[in-house]
Write a sequence for this structure.
Protein backbone atom coordinates (compact mmCIF):
# COMPACT_ATOMS: atom_id res chain seq x y z
CA UNK A 1 0.00 0.00 0.00
CA UNK A 2 1.00 3.63 -0.51
CA UNK A 3 0.03 5.24 2.78
CA UNK A 4 -0.38 9.00 2.90
CA UNK A 5 -0.69 10.67 6.29
CA UNK A 6 -2.04 14.21 6.66
CA UNK A 7 -1.75 16.05 9.98
CA UNK A 8 -3.28 19.43 10.79
CA UNK A 9 -0.75 21.82 12.24
CA UNK A 10 0.19 25.46 12.67
CA UNK A 11 3.35 27.56 12.92
CA UNK A 12 3.87 26.54 16.56
CA UNK A 13 3.26 22.85 16.00
CA UNK A 14 5.53 22.20 13.01
CA UNK A 15 8.30 20.45 14.92
CA UNK A 16 5.88 18.13 16.73
CA UNK A 17 4.06 17.34 13.49
CA UNK A 18 7.27 16.59 11.61
CA UNK A 19 8.29 14.20 14.41
CA UNK A 20 4.91 12.46 14.24
CA UNK A 21 5.27 12.03 10.49
CA UNK A 22 8.78 10.64 10.89
CA UNK A 23 7.53 8.20 13.52
CA UNK A 24 4.89 7.02 11.09
CA UNK A 25 7.37 6.81 8.20
CA UNK A 26 10.68 5.85 9.85
CA UNK A 27 13.95 6.19 7.95
CA UNK A 28 17.22 4.46 8.77
CA UNK A 29 19.15 7.70 9.00
CA UNK A 30 21.96 6.72 11.38
CA UNK A 31 25.41 7.12 9.80
CA UNK A 32 23.85 7.95 6.43
CA UNK A 33 24.29 10.92 4.09
CA UNK A 34 21.03 12.79 3.80
CA UNK A 35 19.89 15.29 1.17
CA UNK A 36 16.96 17.44 2.28
CA UNK A 37 15.45 18.85 -0.90
CA UNK A 38 13.08 21.79 -0.29
CA UNK A 39 11.42 23.76 -3.07
CA UNK A 40 13.58 26.88 -3.50
CA UNK A 41 12.15 28.00 -6.82
CA UNK A 42 13.95 31.32 -6.62
CA UNK A 43 14.67 34.33 -4.44
CA UNK A 44 11.19 34.66 -2.97
CA UNK A 45 10.74 35.66 0.69
CA UNK A 46 8.92 33.11 2.87
CA UNK A 47 5.73 35.19 3.10
CA UNK A 48 5.19 34.76 -0.66
CA UNK A 49 4.48 31.07 -0.04
CA UNK A 50 6.49 30.04 -3.10
CA UNK A 51 9.30 28.18 -1.34
CA UNK A 52 9.17 25.55 1.38
CA UNK A 53 8.68 27.05 4.82
CA UNK A 54 12.07 27.52 6.56
CA UNK A 55 10.49 26.19 9.78
CA UNK A 56 9.50 22.95 8.09
CA UNK A 57 12.98 22.53 6.62
CA UNK A 58 14.58 23.25 10.00
CA UNK A 59 12.30 20.77 11.79
CA UNK A 60 13.24 18.01 9.34
CA UNK A 61 16.91 18.92 9.62
CA UNK A 62 16.84 18.79 13.44
CA UNK A 63 15.10 15.43 13.34
CA UNK A 64 17.67 13.79 11.06
CA UNK A 65 20.56 15.25 13.09
CA UNK A 66 18.97 13.81 16.25
CA UNK A 67 18.65 10.45 14.52
CA UNK A 68 22.41 10.35 13.96
CA UNK A 69 22.87 11.23 10.29
CA UNK A 70 26.53 11.21 9.25
CA UNK A 71 26.23 14.14 6.88
CA UNK A 72 23.29 16.35 5.94
CA UNK A 73 22.93 18.66 2.94
CA UNK A 74 20.03 21.06 2.43
CA UNK A 75 19.72 22.48 -1.06
CA UNK A 76 17.93 22.93 -4.36
CA UNK A 77 18.69 24.14 -7.87
CA UNK A 78 16.41 27.15 -8.29
CA UNK A 79 14.72 27.75 -11.60
CA UNK A 80 15.75 31.37 -11.59
CA UNK A 81 19.06 32.81 -12.66
CA UNK A 82 20.95 29.65 -13.62
CA UNK A 83 24.35 29.10 -12.04
CA UNK A 84 25.00 31.18 -8.95
CA UNK A 85 21.33 31.56 -8.09
CA UNK A 86 21.38 28.92 -5.38
CA UNK A 87 23.01 31.04 -2.70
CA UNK A 88 20.85 34.11 -3.31
CA UNK A 89 17.63 32.08 -3.37
CA UNK A 90 18.67 30.28 -0.19
CA UNK A 91 19.19 33.57 1.64
CA UNK A 92 16.01 35.31 0.49
CA UNK A 93 13.81 32.25 1.05
CA UNK A 94 15.02 32.18 4.67
CA UNK A 95 16.27 28.62 4.26
CA UNK A 96 19.98 29.48 4.57
CA UNK A 97 19.31 31.24 7.84
CA UNK A 98 17.15 28.37 9.10
CA UNK A 99 19.66 25.66 8.26
CA UNK A 100 23.02 27.41 8.77
CA UNK A 101 26.07 25.33 7.89
CA UNK A 102 23.89 22.57 6.43
CA UNK A 103 22.73 24.75 3.55
CA UNK A 104 24.68 23.58 0.51
CA UNK A 105 25.10 24.98 -2.97
CA UNK A 106 24.20 21.68 -4.60
CA UNK A 107 24.67 23.19 -8.07
CA UNK A 108 28.44 23.34 -7.64
CA UNK A 109 29.18 19.69 -8.34
CA UNK A 110 27.33 17.93 -11.11
CA UNK A 111 27.29 14.58 -12.82
CA UNK A 112 25.73 13.50 -16.11
CA UNK A 113 23.68 10.34 -15.81
CA UNK A 114 21.61 8.28 -18.25
CA UNK A 115 17.84 8.44 -17.94
CA UNK A 116 15.10 6.29 -19.47
CA UNK A 117 12.99 8.78 -21.33
CA UNK A 118 11.69 9.35 -24.83
CA UNK A 119 12.70 13.01 -24.49
CA UNK A 120 16.36 12.84 -23.42
CA UNK A 121 19.08 10.23 -23.10
CA UNK A 122 20.87 11.77 -20.13
CA UNK A 123 20.50 14.56 -17.60
CA UNK A 124 22.86 16.61 -15.43
CA UNK A 125 22.12 15.98 -11.76
CA UNK A 126 23.65 17.64 -8.75
CA UNK A 127 26.23 15.16 -7.51
CA UNK A 128 24.67 15.38 -4.04
CA UNK A 129 21.55 13.70 -5.44
CA UNK A 130 23.62 10.74 -6.57
CA UNK A 131 25.77 10.64 -3.43
CA UNK A 132 22.93 10.84 -0.91
CA UNK A 133 21.93 7.59 0.80
CA UNK A 134 18.55 9.09 1.64
CA UNK A 135 16.64 11.94 -0.03
CA UNK A 136 13.86 13.71 1.84
CA UNK A 137 11.70 15.65 -0.60
CA UNK A 138 9.98 18.78 0.75
CA UNK A 139 7.64 20.24 -1.90
CA UNK A 140 4.92 22.82 -1.34
CA UNK A 141 1.21 22.44 -2.05
CA UNK A 142 0.83 24.57 -5.20
CA UNK A 143 -0.64 24.80 -8.66
CA UNK A 144 1.55 25.14 -11.72
CA UNK A 145 0.71 26.89 -14.97
CA UNK A 146 2.40 24.28 -17.11
CA UNK A 147 2.13 21.03 -15.16
CA UNK A 148 -1.16 21.82 -13.37
CA UNK A 149 0.20 21.07 -9.93
CA UNK A 150 3.66 21.09 -8.43
CA UNK A 151 4.27 18.62 -5.65
CA UNK A 152 6.56 15.67 -5.07
CA UNK A 153 7.29 14.84 -8.71
CA UNK A 154 7.88 18.38 -9.89
CA UNK A 155 10.11 19.18 -6.91
CA UNK A 156 12.62 16.59 -8.11
CA UNK A 157 13.11 18.67 -11.27
CA UNK A 158 15.42 20.56 -8.91
CA UNK A 159 17.81 17.58 -9.09
CA UNK A 160 18.81 19.12 -12.41
CA UNK A 161 21.65 21.58 -12.13
CA UNK A 162 22.32 24.81 -13.97
CA UNK A 163 21.06 25.76 -17.39
CA UNK A 164 19.83 22.30 -18.27
CA UNK A 165 16.54 22.95 -16.51
CA UNK A 166 15.43 25.52 -19.03
CA UNK A 167 16.86 23.52 -21.95
CA UNK A 168 14.70 20.57 -20.93
CA UNK A 169 11.65 22.69 -21.69
CA UNK A 170 12.68 22.51 -25.33
CA UNK A 171 12.61 18.70 -25.14
CA UNK A 172 9.19 18.40 -23.53
CA UNK A 173 7.26 21.27 -25.05
CA UNK A 174 3.65 20.65 -24.18
CA UNK A 175 2.16 20.25 -20.75
CA UNK A 176 1.84 16.52 -21.34
CA UNK A 177 5.36 16.07 -22.70
CA UNK A 178 6.99 18.12 -19.98
CA UNK A 179 4.98 16.32 -17.30
CA UNK A 180 6.16 12.98 -18.66
CA UNK A 181 9.73 14.18 -18.74
CA UNK A 182 9.67 15.22 -15.08
CA UNK A 183 8.25 11.83 -14.13
CA UNK A 184 11.22 10.22 -15.93
CA UNK A 185 13.54 12.43 -13.87
CA UNK A 186 11.69 11.60 -10.65
CA UNK A 187 11.90 7.90 -11.47
CA UNK A 188 15.68 8.16 -11.93
CA UNK A 189 16.02 8.84 -8.20
CA UNK A 190 12.79 8.36 -6.31
CA UNK A 191 12.97 10.24 -2.99
CA UNK A 192 12.93 8.04 0.10
CA UNK A 193 10.32 10.17 1.83
CA UNK A 194 8.17 13.12 0.80
CA UNK A 195 6.83 15.64 3.30
CA UNK A 196 4.53 18.20 1.69
CA UNK A 197 4.45 21.69 3.17
CA UNK A 198 0.74 22.47 3.12
CA UNK A 199 0.75 25.28 5.67
CA UNK A 200 -0.73 27.33 2.85
CA UNK A 201 -2.04 26.20 -0.52
CA UNK A 202 -1.34 28.20 -3.68
CA UNK A 203 -4.19 28.31 -6.18
CA UNK A 204 -4.56 29.96 -9.58
CA UNK A 205 -1.38 31.11 -11.28
CA UNK A 206 1.17 28.98 -9.46
CA UNK A 207 3.94 28.20 -8.88
CA UNK A 208 4.94 31.76 -8.00
CA UNK A 209 2.12 34.17 -8.77
CA UNK A 210 -0.94 32.37 -7.46
CA UNK A 211 -3.12 33.22 -4.47
CA UNK A 212 -2.41 31.78 -1.05
CA UNK A 213 -5.08 30.28 1.11
CA UNK A 214 -4.75 28.81 4.55
CA UNK A 215 -4.55 25.03 4.64
CA UNK A 216 -2.58 24.23 7.80
CA UNK A 217 -1.39 20.70 7.09
CA UNK A 218 1.73 18.65 6.58
CA UNK A 219 1.42 15.48 4.50
CA UNK A 220 3.87 12.61 4.14
CA UNK A 221 4.35 9.37 2.26
CA UNK A 222 7.12 7.08 1.12
CA UNK A 223 5.39 7.32 -2.26
CA UNK A 224 5.71 10.85 -3.65
CA UNK A 225 3.26 10.18 -6.47
CA UNK A 226 0.68 9.19 -3.85
CA UNK A 227 1.22 12.64 -2.29
CA UNK A 228 0.59 14.29 -5.67
CA UNK A 229 -2.49 12.11 -6.17
CA UNK A 230 -3.77 13.26 -2.76
CA UNK A 231 -2.96 16.92 -3.50
CA UNK A 232 -4.92 16.68 -6.76
CA UNK A 233 -7.94 15.29 -4.93
CA UNK A 234 -7.71 17.95 -2.24
CA UNK A 235 -7.59 20.57 -5.00
CA UNK A 236 -10.87 19.11 -6.23
CA UNK A 237 -9.48 17.85 -9.52
CA UNK A 238 -9.39 14.34 -10.95
CA UNK A 239 -5.91 12.89 -10.38
CA UNK A 240 -6.04 11.16 -13.74
CA UNK A 241 -6.40 14.54 -15.45
CA UNK A 242 -2.93 15.47 -14.16
CA UNK A 243 -0.48 14.30 -16.82
CA UNK A 244 2.26 13.49 -14.29
CA UNK A 245 0.03 11.15 -12.31
CA UNK A 246 -1.47 9.56 -15.39
CA UNK A 247 1.96 8.85 -16.86
CA UNK A 248 3.34 7.56 -13.54
CA UNK A 249 0.43 5.09 -13.46
CA UNK A 250 0.94 4.10 -17.08
CA UNK A 251 4.61 3.37 -16.55
CA UNK A 252 3.98 1.27 -13.44
CA UNK A 253 5.60 3.73 -11.05
CA UNK A 254 2.33 4.27 -9.22
CA UNK A 255 -0.96 2.49 -8.52
CA UNK A 256 -3.89 4.71 -7.54
CA UNK A 257 -5.74 1.72 -6.10
CA UNK A 258 -2.93 1.25 -3.57
CA UNK A 259 -3.26 4.73 -2.08
CA UNK A 260 -4.54 4.79 1.48
CA UNK A 261 -5.11 8.30 2.83
CA UNK A 262 -5.12 8.71 6.60
CA UNK A 263 -5.57 11.67 8.92
CA UNK A 264 -6.92 15.13 8.23
CA UNK A 265 -7.93 14.84 4.59
CA UNK A 266 -10.17 17.63 3.34
CA UNK A 267 -11.24 18.86 -0.09
CA UNK A 268 -10.76 22.56 -0.69
CA UNK A 269 -13.94 24.25 -1.88
CA UNK A 270 -13.81 26.20 -5.15
CA UNK A 271 -10.08 25.68 -5.48
CA UNK A 272 -8.84 27.46 -8.58
CA UNK A 273 -6.65 25.40 -10.88
CA UNK A 274 -4.64 27.14 -13.61
CA UNK A 275 -6.93 27.83 -16.56
CA UNK A 276 -5.04 25.60 -18.96
CA UNK A 277 -5.37 22.62 -16.63
CA UNK A 278 -8.99 21.80 -17.41
CA UNK A 279 -9.04 18.36 -19.03
CA UNK A 280 -11.13 19.63 -21.94
CA UNK A 281 -8.83 22.54 -22.57
CA UNK A 282 -5.76 20.35 -22.18
CA UNK A 283 -7.17 17.85 -24.64
CA UNK A 284 -7.95 20.49 -27.22
CA UNK A 285 -4.66 22.22 -26.63
CA UNK A 286 -2.51 19.14 -26.86
CA UNK A 287 -4.27 17.25 -29.59
CA UNK A 288 -5.62 19.85 -31.94
CA UNK A 289 -4.17 23.31 -31.89
CA UNK A 290 -1.60 23.44 -29.13
CA UNK A 291 0.80 25.97 -30.63
CA UNK A 292 -2.03 28.42 -31.30
CA UNK A 293 -4.33 27.98 -28.34
CA UNK A 294 -1.83 28.39 -25.54
CA UNK A 295 -1.57 31.98 -24.35
CA UNK A 296 1.42 34.10 -25.24
CA UNK A 297 3.63 35.64 -22.57
CA UNK A 298 3.64 39.44 -22.77
CA UNK A 299 5.78 41.75 -20.64
CA UNK A 300 3.89 44.42 -18.72
CA UNK A 301 6.48 47.18 -18.86
CA UNK A 302 4.83 49.22 -16.12
CA UNK A 303 5.38 46.48 -13.58
CA UNK A 304 8.75 45.27 -14.89
CA UNK A 305 11.81 46.23 -12.83
CA UNK A 306 14.30 44.97 -15.44
CA UNK A 307 15.75 42.30 -13.19
CA UNK A 308 16.64 40.11 -16.18
CA UNK A 309 15.32 36.86 -14.66
CA UNK A 310 13.04 36.10 -17.58
CA UNK A 311 15.73 36.63 -20.22
CA UNK A 312 18.21 34.54 -18.26
CA UNK A 313 15.89 31.57 -17.98
CA UNK A 314 14.30 31.62 -21.45
CA UNK A 315 15.47 28.34 -23.03
CA UNK A 316 15.10 29.54 -26.62
CA UNK A 317 16.43 33.12 -26.42
CA UNK A 318 12.98 34.33 -27.40
CA UNK A 319 13.50 37.38 -25.17
CA UNK A 320 16.72 38.51 -26.81
CA UNK A 321 15.07 41.78 -27.87
CA UNK A 322 13.49 42.33 -24.45
CA UNK A 323 10.75 43.41 -23.77
CA UNK A 324 9.78 42.23 -27.25
CA UNK A 325 9.21 38.46 -27.36
CA UNK A 326 9.97 36.52 -30.50
CA UNK A 327 6.93 34.23 -30.75
CA UNK A 328 8.50 32.21 -33.55
CA UNK A 329 11.00 31.01 -30.98
CA UNK A 330 8.76 30.97 -27.89
CA UNK A 331 7.80 27.42 -26.89
CA UNK A 332 5.33 28.61 -24.21
CA UNK A 333 7.10 26.96 -21.34
CA UNK A 334 6.13 29.93 -19.11
CA UNK A 335 9.48 29.87 -17.31
CA UNK A 336 9.55 33.66 -17.75
CA UNK A 337 6.21 34.03 -16.00
CA UNK A 338 7.21 31.57 -13.30
CA UNK A 339 10.41 33.39 -12.46
CA UNK A 340 9.18 36.99 -12.60
CA UNK A 341 9.25 38.53 -9.11
CA UNK A 342 6.82 41.30 -10.17
CA UNK A 343 4.13 39.23 -11.87
CA UNK A 344 4.99 41.34 -14.91
CA UNK A 345 4.79 38.56 -17.48
CA UNK A 346 1.15 38.26 -18.40
CA UNK A 347 -0.44 35.50 -20.41
CA UNK A 348 -2.56 36.76 -23.28
CA UNK A 349 -4.62 35.14 -25.97
CA UNK A 350 -8.12 35.45 -27.33
CA UNK A 351 -9.16 31.87 -26.57
CA UNK A 352 -7.37 31.94 -23.23
CA UNK A 353 -9.33 35.05 -22.18
CA UNK A 354 -12.62 33.34 -23.02
CA UNK A 355 -11.68 30.19 -21.14
CA UNK A 356 -10.53 32.20 -18.14
CA UNK A 357 -13.96 33.78 -17.80
CA UNK A 358 -15.76 30.43 -17.72
S1 LIG B 1 9.46 33.68 -23.81
FE1 LIG B 1 8.84 32.74 -21.86
S2 LIG B 1 7.36 31.18 -22.44
FE2 LIG B 1 8.48 31.74 -24.30
S3 LIG B 1 10.15 30.25 -24.44
FE3 LIG B 1 10.94 32.06 -23.37
S4 LIG B 1 10.64 31.59 -21.18
FE4 LIG B 1 9.36 30.16 -22.34
S1 LIG C 1 9.42 40.91 -16.84
FE1 LIG C 1 9.72 40.25 -14.71
S2 LIG C 1 11.43 38.78 -14.80
FE2 LIG C 1 11.44 39.93 -16.73
S3 LIG C 1 12.88 41.62 -16.37
FE3 LIG C 1 10.80 42.38 -15.91
S4 LIG C 1 10.56 42.06 -13.68
FE4 LIG C 1 12.31 40.79 -14.33
Amino acid sequence: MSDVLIIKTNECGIRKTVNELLEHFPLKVKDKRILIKPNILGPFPPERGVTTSPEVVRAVLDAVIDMGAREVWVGDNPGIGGYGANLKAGVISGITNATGKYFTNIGEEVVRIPVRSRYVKSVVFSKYVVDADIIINLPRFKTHNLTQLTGAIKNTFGYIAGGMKSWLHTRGRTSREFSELIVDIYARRVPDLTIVDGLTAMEGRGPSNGRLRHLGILMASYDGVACDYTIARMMGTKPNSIFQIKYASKTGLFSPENVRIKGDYTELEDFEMPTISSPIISYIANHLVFPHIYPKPVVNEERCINCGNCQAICPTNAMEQFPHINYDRCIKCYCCQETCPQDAVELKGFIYEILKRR
